[in-house]
Design brief:
mainly beta; seven-stranded mixed beta sheet; four-stranded antiparallel beta sheet
Length: about 130
């Protein structure tokens, strides 16, 4: 049984930082690309970042480039999202997903290629 579990969300002030973690079990973590998505109330889901199976490729939404950094530790079955210079518009539920294809395909941000999803962790940025 595959489980994807996010953690690290919380309430921080504008300009602050958070590091999200996502641990996946029941799958060959090292073979999967991992991605972060977010969804704010009343808005569509947005692809935030993606990292390929060997960390050779990373992708970011334009809205987070230069502020967020994705990384992974295959020995720990964990992917991280370091979020700096946070803004109120970053407030959302953040979801982690796994793609057995292993690479961040051109359509990764749509989420359609993801095989497994976590239940999310809430990030709230106060102004």
């Amino acid at each position: 049984q595959v489980q994807v579990v996010e953690s690290g969300g919380g309430l921080v002030q504008t300009g602050g930082s958070l590091r999200l973690s996502c641990t996946a079990s029941g799958l060959r973590f090292g073979n999967n690309a991992m991605a972060w998505f977010r969804q704010a109330p009343g808005k569509e889901r947005e692809g935030v970042s993606c990292i390929s199976w060997n960390s050779g490729t990373t992708r970011y939404a334009d809205s987070v480039k230069g502020r967020f950094t994705v990384s992974r530790d295959n020995a720990k079955n964990t992917v991280y999202l370091q979020m700096n210079s946070l803004k109120p518009e970053d407030t959302a539920m953040y979801y982690c997903a796994a793609d057995s294809l292993g690479v961040c395909a051109g359509t990764w941000a749509s989420g359609r290629g993801m095989d497994y999803w976590g239940k999310g962790t809430l990030v709230t940025i106060s102004s």
